[in-house]
Structures are given as C-alpha cells and as structure tokens.
Amino acid sequence: MIISVASGKGGTGKTTVATNLARSIGSGVQLLDCDVEEPNAHLFINPLFEGSETVYTPVPEVDEEKCTYCGKCAEICQFKAIAVLNENMLVFEELCHSCGGCWEICPEGAIQEGGRELGIIEKGYSNGIEFIHGRLRVGEAMSPPLIKKVRSYQNPEKLTIIDAPPGTSCPVIASMKDSDFVLLVTEPTPFGLHDLKLAVGATRILDIPCGLVINRSDLGDRKTKEYANQMNLPILMEIPFNREIAEAYSRGEMLVDAMPEWKEKFLELYDKIKHLVKKEIP
Ligand code: SF4
Ligand code: SF4
After folding, report:
1. Residue 84 beta carbon below 6 angstroms from any ligand 1 atom
2. 3-class SS string, the chain
3. If you measure from the C-alpha of residue 58 to the centroid of ligand 2, how many angstroms do you get, rounded to a whole number?
4. With a 6 A CB cut-off, is 110 part of the ligand 1 pocket?
5. Nearest bound ligand to CA 96?
6. Is pLDDT of 99 > 90?
7. Which residue has a Cα nearest atom 7 of ligand 2?
8. In the chain, N or C: fewer CB atoms in 10 Å?
9. Ligand 2 site, residue 76, Cβ cutoff 6 A
10. pLDDT of residue 30
C-alpha cells in the first residue's frame, strides 16, 4: 500500500504526520521524502545513510560537425530549449524537459543525449524503517524527474509512506500519483482551508481516496470541519495545539518518542486508512 501525506499549504505538520506514522508502524515500512526542494524528514528519522547516487536528466548535445542547421529540432521543442541562429546552435539546458523530441527528429543524427545534474538520492535505515530522499541541486528548477527517481525505489512488499511537497503543482502530483490513499494535513485557518480545497481537488482529479488530519485543531474556526462534512471527507486524526508537541518538534524529536501515548493514535490512524482503502477496492 502507498500512503501519500500531503498538504495544500506548507507548515501544517505534514512531515510530523509522515514521520510519526512511519515510526509508529516500524518495520516493514519505507518512508520516501519526496519534498526534494526542502527535504527535512531525515532530521526526525535520523537514518544511517548507506549510499548516495547522483541523478541526471537527458539533455541534447549537438555535434556541429554533423549539423546542417535545418532547424527541425528547434521546431519540435515545445520549451524553447534549443535554437538555431545564423548557423549557430544554442541549447538552453535549464529549459529542457528531456522529452527526447530533438534527438529523435534530427535527420543527421547530430544530437546525442548528454546529462544535466538534477540532484542526489540518499538511502538509509532507521529502526527498521527504510528511508529514501532526494535533494534537488541548488539552481535546478525541475523537481518531478528527481521525485520520480525517489519513487522508483518503492518496494511493493512494504508499506510505502510518501512525504509529498506542499502545494498542488507538478511536484505534488508526481509524489501522490498512483497512491492508494492521500492523507491531507491541514490547519483550521482561512489560508489552510483555501489550500485544502485545492489539494482535495487534485486528489479528486487523480481519483485517489483521501482523509484529513487537522493539526492545531483547537485553534482557528470550524469552517474546515464544515467543509469536510460537506465534501464527505473523513477526519481521521486531530492534533491539538500543545506546547509539549511544539517543543519536541523544535528539538527535532519525534512526537511518539517525546509523548509515547501518541504511538497508539498513529496506529489507529493507520487502521482507519487500511479500512478506507479496503472499502475502495471492490
Ligand atoms: S535537427 Fe539536427 S541537423 Fe537540424 S538543426 Fe537540429 S541538430 Fe542540426
Ligand atoms: S529534449 Fe525535448 S525539451 Fe529538451 S531540447 Fe530536446 S525537444 Fe526540447
């Protein structure tokens, strides 16, 4: 089973939920931190990293000895990443989406696949949890290919928990796609509700069942609960605003380590998700 933990808005406690859920279940769990622009789950999980791998994406490399400057490659590129100017070839690597159109269409075979560094993948273990995350190279704009690489380590024999990036754009879709369940972490504020609505819209388009965790549930207003009711969204867990929780977080401690009574609540959350996923499978 693949559970993605997402949130429309940053700072809602998504990583807290993903890491504590993984730690509570323990062995047989994989935690993939797909928030490659700002990975922070490792700060709580503290894995012992066993290896890292640099990830590249293919970009064109033009051999001007063979090129006839016909312009077919520039015509097919939808991202303006390649241009022919007065018998000069210009490649804007950062704009390239690695679709391969240019090297497929080149009649002279003048374009080879080069590589642009996207970032690195690191893998490790912590208390029986297999942990994998990606770190996007500083200055790199395209995170979905690195996210796909992190997801390529999914092991169908294990429960996979994905810590998705915040928002509802391409990186989030790449992280949530093909999940069995999306756990949306939100907070009961007008901003939280606004972004929650967008996130729910994304899960509906992807046709993935979802449920809510409301963080700092005793602050703010009742509008999030009213919306959940209206949209038939199950509220699976509520985490109240609590000084002890905030202090543990700021020290980089796991909630279930600082307050062990929460382990049972995260296991209950997992049971509720399993139940909801089973209902979805005819
Ligand atoms: S398609 Fe090939 S030959 Fe034509 S301009 Fe591009 S690289 Fe040169
Ligand atoms: S691989 Fe695709 S996106 Fe990149 S330059 Fe070629 S046509 Fe453009």
Report:
1. yes
2. CEEEEECCCCCCCHHHHHHHHHHHHCCCEEEEECCCCCCCHHHHHCCEEEEEEEEEEEEEEECCCCCCCCCHHHHHCCCCCEEECCCCEEECHHHCCCCCHHHHHCCCCCEEEEEEEEEEEEEEEECCEEEEEEEECCCCCCCHHHHHHHHCCCCCCCEEEEECCCCCCHHHHHHHCCCCEEEEEECCCHHHHHHHHHHHHHHHHHCCCEEEEEECCCCCCCHHHHHHHHCCCCEEEEECCCHHHHHHHHCCCCHHHHCCHHHHHHHHHHHHHHHHHHHHCC
3. 9
4. yes
5. 2
6. yes
7. 77
8. C
9. yes
10. 97
